[in-house]
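Researcher: Batch entry, complex prediction.
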Amino acid sequence: MKKNKTIPEQIWQFFCSARLAVYTLVILALTSIIGTVVLQNGAEEEYIEFYGHGWYNLIKAFDVDDMYHAWWFLGLIVILCVNIIVCSIERLSTTWKIIFPKKIIFNPDRFRKLKNLEIFPVKKTLLSLSLEVEKLLSKNVGPVLKEETGKSVILYAEKGRWTRMGVYVVHTSLILLLSGALIGSLFGFKANLNLDEGKTLDTAILVENKKPVKLGFSIRCNDFNVKFYDTGAPEEFKSNLTIIEDGKEILTEDILVNHPLTYKGINIFQSSYGSAPPDSVSLEIFGQQDKTALIRTVKIGEEFQLPDEETIFKLEGFLPHFDFNGHDLGQAFIGRIVEKDGKSFQIGLPLKFPTFDKMRKGSFAFVIKEAEQKHYTGLHITKDPGIWYVYAGFILMIIGCWVTFFMAHESYFIEIETTGELSSNLYVSGTSNRNSHGLKIKIRKMCHILKG
Amino acid sequence: MNSSFLLSSTTFIYALATVFYIGSFAFKKQTLSKAGFIVLVIGFLDNSAGIIMRWIESYEMGYGHAPFSNMYESLVFFSWTIAILYIFIELKYKESIIGLFVSPLVFLAIAYASFDPNTSSKISPLLPALKSNWLIAHVITCFLGYAGFAVSFGFSIMYFIKPRNPQSESIFAKLPSWELIDELTYQMVVFGFLFLTIGIITGAVWANSAWGKYWTWDPKETWSLITWLIYAIFMHLRIMRGWSGKSLAYISILGFLAVLFTYFGVNFLLSGLHSYA
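Model: Structure tokens for the complex:
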């Protein structure tokens, strides 16, 4: 060992230790707890109220209010990644020679000394036993290597040398899915879009900074439905959407929670809903003098002449909270009456009290017959070009874990020694790079077959 | 015959199995543990029938979903997964004494489901977000993972009560060899780790198809990651740093505490997407 290492060598050494991996994992596990206890992405006042100013400054200094995106937390993940890559490069060069040897060799002395060695006599000749063993090994394990000396035959077979790659697959999968997450956060976006029924929009609002983002196409919400169970819990939200590009309707599809729509790499999810202002109302109009009623459907912004042919009614708008002498009467249409002398005044028509306008005792009374309850659909819109890396990472991780934990590089050694004309001694042992108990069971099974 | 009868009877059958295992150990009677195993298998069949009945009943009620949607159902399934895992181990390794450390866990999970007043056994309809085939894959794999960790926890306890001296007169001297305990603990951690990994992944894929984000640092997700990290540490310590025995058993116990917190603690103490389950 050289005593004086250059600085790059020292850095390399630092990152290729398994101890660093363990420490990083421990710190990641411990610090992850913080974010589950301290409120994340809350408002400043919430922290100050709960922790006081002193602690709030500390929280701010270390970004604990958004700790999973804080520089130090991401730094830990970077350290882990560098650690994994350096460790893998360092070890792979040795493992590679084991996995792809020029020639498979084995050391009989090593196998004779193994703890799981079983020795037993069999009343058969060397030749017949040797054939039998060869058949057994090639059937259950793999190609058999044979070494013959005058009085004995050694047979060796192995399988699963490649399974030593498993752990590298797991580590690669981690790097792959973390890079997928990075690609997603750099080149993708997450946005929300509230779309009233019947409306078309081509811009969503980014979640992180509330800035608008152009989608490159328009979405029209044709219809939104919500179903409830008898218990009152929501059963299903469904939006019927049409994608419009360059003025052409491209496709129309229903989306539900768990059934998003994807178009040109942009995913559209059903995430919430709410009530949208109705855009028209059906009114029953009572004249003061003749008492006859007239029914008319008016759109917001529309105006029409009343039966006296002098007064004009205009439907001006819709308010979610209509204030009447300091009382909130809830959702209401706002109308304006323009009299023949040009004088005009506003009236409120609350949905909750359809005959409210009769109390005004004006020359005409407006009663709400029907106002269609409209909804808006809450869409979550994402673009994530990293998702395929993440999914590839997921698949590799499962395969890698399976190979690493449930498969092994196993070698079997069987030596047959002649002890008489019709009798031989058998020596059976084996090695495995993991699960030595499982191997012991397999060796015993093999012995059981050979004993006949 | 309805599911709630089947599942409450399961609780008592598992209790009986536990009593047999304890009895076999205390009186050193092998026949008692054989009986314990048979009773445990009967309980397991009853448990399975109960889960299937509940599934059918949910269809009869018009909700039609797999019985994995709330705390009660998950606890019942937790018992089932520990039981099937243990039955497999006893059949493979033929060491009935370890049943002493596992059967109480099987019993406790289902007993908690039946007797905790806050746990409702009512079959309720599914929220829109839960209506997905990923629900079944996610729950089954997560609970197989939890079961692996629970069993490895049971084995880890043995490190602390088996006497060091092989000539010891203590009733705990009969426990399996150190080598086997070590092997079994590791095998169960590995099993749990694989399934927790798949469980987290299926959850992420599901979340991505339901909400458009595969990872949101929701407390349940974060705690499952913490659990995953602890067991990852366990394996690196064992394989790369050569840890074994008692010191490793501490990590396995710590890991199981993290499992318990992920499972119960998060629901009671922290809020998030999983607060319904």
